[in-house]
Write a structure and sequence with these properties.
The complex is a heterodimer of chains A (about 160) and B (about 750). Chain A is built from six helices and five strands, in the order E-E-H-E-E-H-E-H-H-H-H. With about 160 residues, chain A is α+β, with helices and mostly antiparallel strands. Chain A has two domains: about 80 residues, Ubiquitin-like (UB roll) (Roll), CATH 3.10.20.30; about 80 residues, [2Fe-2S]-binding domain (DNA polymerase, domain 1, Orthogonal Bundle), CATH 1.10.150. A five-stranded mixed beta sheet of chain A has the order 2-1-5-3-4, with helices on both faces. With about 750 residues, chain B is an alpha+beta fold. In chain B, the strands form eight sheets. Chain B has a seven-stranded mixed beta sheet with strand order 10-11-8-18-15-16-17, sandwiched between helices. The longest helix of chain B is centred in the N-terminal third of the chain and has 28 residues. Chain B is globular, with a radius of gyration of 28 Å. Chain B starts with 10 loop residues before the first helix and ends in a 17-residue tail after the last helix. The chains are: A alpha+beta (about 160), B alpha+beta (about 750).
């Protein structure tokens, strides 16, 4: 067991776990942040996607020892109150079916929009290729990412 | 009298009320929450001022409405749609409605989610629940104003006295409504559907805000104080049992609390309940996972330890070559004289179709949280079948079923897998041994290798075209893994000379319902072979299939279990999909359109797929058009479209690349790297949905839009390339053309 100081969603947490423990299980079991999901454990489904210093990462493939040096953002920290443009667009377009994959989808999409404010369908397919949706809501996920990009743009225009 | 119960609903109160309630007060099979003799006891709570006309509805003095959702939310949207039905009849303002998931409780009536049955089973009942409450609120308002109730209407969370324009909000009517008797069943008037204001509109899922912020909704998210974490190792060969394991070594590993063998099969002889294995219990999930990598078990492998898919396929061909009077073959249906019609026909087409076992692959792996204390158990589970979970838990624990309380969590994908309760049984047994709350977590390999699979199958077909270009004979031999086509499965009853032979292979593969069971493969076999026959007849597939569907409207079922087939509804959706898709338009080589249609789960659905195939054989589904007849009323337009979009895309997902191989009695694939699931890039580019409303009761949409997709795509591939896909997954067929 080793002690690690984790910066998660702007808060500091000390945990005492085996150093090879994947960040996923530290978030879920130790920190009660269960929005980050377990799907495959081998980085194939994307349900556990979080941000490490703003870049998408698979929490099931990230040992806690590696994550300790980064600022970690989970779905619970994507916004304070569900007001991220992607969260709004997801609700507006009623994307989710079972909803289990959607935290990972949102985290991948959020990283995409940070890099590319107006992604094309092709950009979206490329960025979201690592996230499985078993209910197959891809059609709406793609539409909601476009919608969120529009919401961000509209917000900028209003502020300007 | 008083219609008040303590919040949250207390199970024992309802059972007590159920026992006390007189027949005149009972609404359907549900329990009224009001009874004169209960008024005194409820007096203390009366101050809370809730109006509780039945178990599904509570209205507070501030006008807020709580509607209970009794069916498991599995992604089908039922937690939103059935409360919408209640709210519509109630005349509630949807913005003031809060939906709460109900625990397993007989007061709610049937609570499973399967077979696309929730809507057809509950639609009328939910209307009555809302209408009863609305009737009482209207009576309360009418009494307040001393006017006839017939002059009052409820809408938008208030009652309006039409002649005077006076209104009273629901909240202001709570006290008076609570004193009124619950009207007898049948005495309340339902709304005229033309007056619906909520049903048929787009309403977002009630839990969307929680989903997008990562709230703990799912089974795997549940926690209890003092909870431990468990994994359960089963032999990869089904029907095996553990003879021994290095338990002392495992128990000494970091974080491990216990490790033990469970050598029981419950129910006896079944592969889909509790099966023998080795449990490891630890302080956290990762400690349990890590310890499992060091677990060594000696197994006694069962009698199916040598079975393989290749051998099943060989056996199927052997059986297909036997004489129909062989003991391996049963005759499920015989109409006319197939042999004579084949001999007399202008053209005979012969083909073999086969498809593999596939997994449900729920993204939330199977799991359960159980706390067993003495002769009582609490279960938190993502189950489609909470009552089945309760009974199986009671059976494995040896306690009365009434002592098992089940809390239904949100479900990270069901597709039929969670109608079976094996994870609940495993978790209950483990918690019973430890005496503390235990969460059992399956990993992806457990999930893929211990699923209850969509069965594979083999179909040997012959069809005859007569001199008029009509289908004159159909001979089908289905070699299955236990469940065969039925005597009324399409196109039975539409072909004058028809023979269905059935056989099944001895096997030990656990099987279970997978989204649109049976139909999800029979539609593919049937519609693809019909496309072959249409081509052989030199006819356009739409014209050929409409001809086959004939001119009768309702075709009766055969025997007491027979299912009627409404050919008029099917012809209608086939015509509609042809028109909406631009069927018959000229497309370049490498592009094509294909038709699939099927009646399943009470829905009549036709789909046209438009595909492109590159010369090197890369497939893309450009567009799917669906014509959907699920009766007179779409409940939630957004949810309904989501189900159809999802079913279409999932149908493609299953057909394109999914395949489980079996070798040495076990599934070869272990995780998604070996079991390719559809990703965004391969999802259909466009999906167009046309709901065709007909004067039939509303039925479910979780399943019936899936079966037509695979044949639509495969028939489109033929139109594009001239290549027939007779084996699933599609990826097994070389689609290149020149």
């Amino acid at each position: 067991m080793s002690k690690f100081n984790l910066q998660v969603n702007g808060r500091s947490h000390e945990v005492d776990v085996a150093p090879e423990t994947p960040l996923l299980w530290v978030l879920r079991d130790q920190l009660d942040l269960v929005g980050t999901k377990f799907g495959c454990g081998i980085g194939q489904c994307g349900a556990c996607t979080v941000h490490l210093d703003g870049s998408p990462a698979r929490a099931c493939q990230t040992p806690v020892a590696t994550a300790a040096s980064s600022k970690i953002t989970t779905i619970e920290g994507l916004s304070a109150d569900g007001s991220h443009p992607l969260q709004k667009a997801w609700c507006e377009l009623d994307v989710a079916q079972c909803g289990y994959c959607q935290a990972g989808q949102l985290m991948s999409a959020a990283a995409l929009l940070t890099q590319n404010a107006h992604p094309s369908d092709q950009d979206i397919d490329d960025a979201m290729g690592g996230n499985l949706c078993r209910c197959a809501t891809y059609f709406r996920i793609r539409a909601a990412i476009h919608r969120a990009a529009d919401l961000v743009q509209a917000g900028k225009e209003i502020r300007a | 009298m008083s219609a008040v119960l303590q919040s949250p609903i207390d199970r024992r109160s309802f059972l007590r009320l159920a026992a006390m309630a007189g027949g005149g007060l009972v609404i359907g099979h549900y329990v009224p929450a009001a009874h004169a003799a209960d008024a005194a006891a409820a007096g203390a709570e009366k101050a809370n001022g809730l109006f509780i006309p039945n178990v599904f509805i509570r209205i507070a003095t501030d006008g807020s409405v709580t509607i209970f959702s009794a069916r498991p939310e599995v992604g089908q949207g039922i937690k939103t749609s059935l409360p919408m039905v209640v709210a519509e009849e109630l005349g509630a303002d949807w913005r003031n409605v809060t939906v709460v998931s109900g625990q397993l409780d007989p007061a709610f009536g049937p609570q499973f989610a399967g077979g696309s049955m929730s809507t057809p089973m509950s639609y009328d009942e939910m209307r009555k629940m809302g209408a009863t409450a609305r009737t009482m609120l209207v009576q309360a308002a009418a009494a307040t104003w001393s006017v006839p109730a017939t002059e009052c209407v409820a809408s938008g969370g208030a009652v309006l006295h039409t002649p005077s324009g006076r209104t009273l909000k629901f909240g202001d009517l709570v006290a008076k409504a609570s004193t009124l008797p619950v009207p007898a069943e049948g005495s309340v008037a339902l709304k005229d559907p033309k007056d619906f204001v909520l049903l048929g509109t787009r309403v977002g899922g009630v839990d969307n805000p929680k989903v997008v912020t990562g709230q703990p909704l799912f089974g795997l998210d549940q926690k209890r104080p003092g909870m431990l974490y468990a994994v359960y190792e089963r032999c990869p060969v089904w029907g095996s049992r553990p003879l021994g394991a290095n338990l002392d070594h495992v128990k000494a590993l970091p974080g491990v609390r216990d490790a033990f063998i469970v050598d029981r099969t419950v129910p006896a002889g079944q592969l889909t309940g509790l099966v023998p294995g080795v449990a490891i219990v630890a302080d956290n999930t990762w400690a349990a996972f890590s310890a499992r990598t060091e677990l060594k078990v000696t197994w006694e492998e069962g009698k199916f330890a040598k079975s393989s898919w290749d051998d099943f396929a060989r056996q199927a061909k052997e059986i297909a070559g036997l004489s129909p009077d062989s003991s391996s073959i049963s005759e499920a249906r015989r109409d006319g004289d197939v042999d004579q019609a084949l001999a007399a026909s202008a053209r005979v087409v012969e083909a073999e179709y086969s498809y593999p076992f596939i997994s449900h692959a729920n993204l939330e792996p199977q799991n359960c949280l159980a706390h067993v204390q003495g002769d009582r158990a609490e279960i938190w589970a993502p189950t489609q079948n909470p009552d089945g979970a309760r009974k199986l838990a009671a059976q494995v624990l040896g306690i009365p079923a009434d002592n098992v309380q089940v809390t239904i969590t949100r479900i990270g994908g069901g597709f039929g897998r969670r109608l079976d309760s094996d994870p609940v049984a495993e978790c209950a047994v483990i918690s019973q041994k430890l005496g503390v709350p235990v969460k059992l977590v399956w990993d992806r390999t457990d999930d893929l290798q211990h699923d209850h699979y969509r069965p594979g199958g083999f179909h040997f077909l012959k069809g005859a075209i007569d001199s008029q270009g009509k289908l004159s004979a159909w001979r089908s031999h289905h070699v299955s893994f236990g469940s065969n086509m039925g005597a009324d499965d399409y196109p039975a009853r539409f072909v004058p000379n028809y023979l269905l032979l059935n056989s099944s292979l001895e096997n030990g593969v656990p099987q279970g319902p997978w989204r649109a069971p049976g139909s999800n493969t029979y539609a593919w076999v049937t519609c693809c072979f019909l496309d072959e026959l249409a081509f052989a007849a030199g006819k356009d597939p739409v014209e050929f299939n409409l001809g086959l569907l004939g001119d009768k409207d309702l075709v009766t079922g055969t025997g007491h279990k027979g299912r009627p087939y409404n050919a008029a509804r099917m012809r209608n959706v086939v015509r509609q999909v042809a028109e909406k898709s631009g069927w018959g338009k000229t497309l370049p080589r490498g592009s094509g359109m294909g038709l699939g249609y099927y009646f399943s789960h009470q829905g009549y659905i036709a789909e046209v797929a438009e595909v492109s195939v590159t010369r090197s054989g890369d497939l893309r589904v450009d567009r799917v058009v669906a014509a959907v007849d699920v009766g007179s009323q779409i409940v939630n337009l957004s949810g309904a479209e989501n189900q159809v979009q999802g079913s279409i895309t999932d149908g493609l997902n299953a057909a394109w690349r999914q395949e489980l191989d079996i070798k040495q009695g076990r599934v070869v694939q272990s995780n998604f790297h070996e079991y390719p699931m559809l990703r965004m890039v391969d999802a259909p580019r466009k999906i167009e949905i046309h709901f065709i409303k007909t004067d039939n009761p509303p039925t479910g949409l979780g399943e019936p839009a899936l079966p037509p997709l695979a044949p639509a795509v495969c028939n489109a591939i033929f139109a594009a390339t001239g290549k027939r896909v007779r084996q699933l997954p599609i990826s097994r067929t070389d689609l290149s053309w020149s």
